[in-house]
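Progress narrative, Year 2. Work on PucR family transcriptional regulator from Leucobacter iarius advanced from sequence curation to structure prediction during this period.
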Amino acid sequence: MREPRVRFPERELPVVDIYTGRVYEEGWGRATGESGARVGPQRVSVGAVLDSLGPAVLSPLAIPNGPSAVTGPPLIDDGNLSGRVSGTTLLLVGRPSPSEIVRAARAGATAVVVRADEVDSDELALAATRAGIALLAAGELLSWGDLYSMIRTLFTVYEPTEPVFVDLFELADRVARAAGGAVAIEDMNMRVVAYSSVAGQDIDELRLAGILGRRVPEEAVQAEEYLRVLRADGAIWCLEPRDNAPRLAIGVTAHEQPYGSIWVVQGESAPLSEEAPRILAEAAEQAVPHLARLQLASDAVRRQRDDSIRRLVHGAGPAEALAAELGLPVRGHYRVVVFGSSGGPTDELDATVVADLVRSALAAYRIRAAVGVVEGVPGAIIAGDPDAELLERVLVESLGRAGQRHGAAWRAAMGRVVDRLERIIDSTIHAETVRDALPPAEPGTEPFVAYHDRMAPLLLLHAVAAGTEAAALLTEEPISIIREYDAANGTDYLRTLAAWAANHYDVPAAAEDLYLHPNTLRHRLGRIRGLLDLDDPDLRLALVLQLRLATLVRPASGGSDLPA
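Result:
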């Protein structure tokens, strides 16, 4: 039997900070609790927006009407201010002029967001004050798309839904009873945030593993299935993995922003209710603000953690206070590890996935660490003296899982151990130096950990190659003589010399690598001696350095013509 909807009389919704519980006395948004009624547009005070998102996302440049002034959902300016701007928080992309701030205010926008590093903040603040519109500065490290999503999520949190229920677990139980199957509610990270506990309903191993681990098992993750669920207009059937029970699933979305999904297991003893798709659709609407609140809180915690890690590894802030905030001991040993991939610059999503995998694995083995993403690069501060073999195994396994998900070859660069918080910056420099010195890796390469204290020879060569004067000399004599001769005569003397040097001048060993007879190689070296004095120790040292460094410094136009 369908549970009756709860109706509420018309009511005022106070503007509340979702973290502190602070209630703003002015700037109330209005909504109706009548079934099916919509709020439009939801209004939140400027102060609540700033407090909830924090200074890493938004900071005030001018608030002429005070923090209690209300604003509306975000809108990215398309260069054509129109009536639809009224009551919105307008994101002005590019380098807006003071006149554009005034035009936004006249069009009815209640707040404007700009990038402070791209504009004259004082000039725009003066224009905003005169026009009576709030002017906010966006965080430098956020894209406009990310900023829009965060502000949109904040406003979604404030949107009322009905019927009102205590939490997501209660919603899961209601859906399970009405639809006739066990229910799991997941966020966008595939974490099981709530599940039903109705007696007598069938569950399979996948559902049980999700409940126990509070996350969908990795082997069961079907990326295409999840995308299909999130893109569908309503509930759809999911049959993968085939060895588990079928599931009816629906995406939890609002304003084209996804927040999670709801899954109902088809039991063996009884089919789901014919009304299950409609029941799931109603449940998805009711789950939106709850999942949005979880996502917003998760984003806020992540931003705060990453910012604290950034300040600690760069030596910018009170070290002990930052360590305590991150759950690290204020005394002991520390080392920094950074992660890089074979695919060039790391995608923000990939970096976050790697950080999450490493954080979970380290926590599982009770290795104290602060893991996050700093300036787009995933990394960690490892505290204490964990077993070296265990630490390496945990990191390699985590990076292996990241590679399986995203196809890149990940590796870890480990800095040296330091004995004070203030010296974490030294370990950071060590780790970044190792990461930059590692040669390019092909996709599919097994992950590994490279240590600063084990790479002294390679680091020395990399430092020499990175020097401006040395870089210019890499292509000059004596190697240029051989390269030019090869180009003019179709010979392969450069590779011959590289193999000879790599085998410590052992002719039989080098001949084997080159698939030549030793006498043929001796004859070829004799011809090369007609071009270069290979018995000159200084010339030989310079040539060997050029040959080796050429494999470390790859020209932008292509690869080195030497074997790596």
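The first strand starts at residue 11 and ends at 16. The first helix runs from residue 46 to 53.
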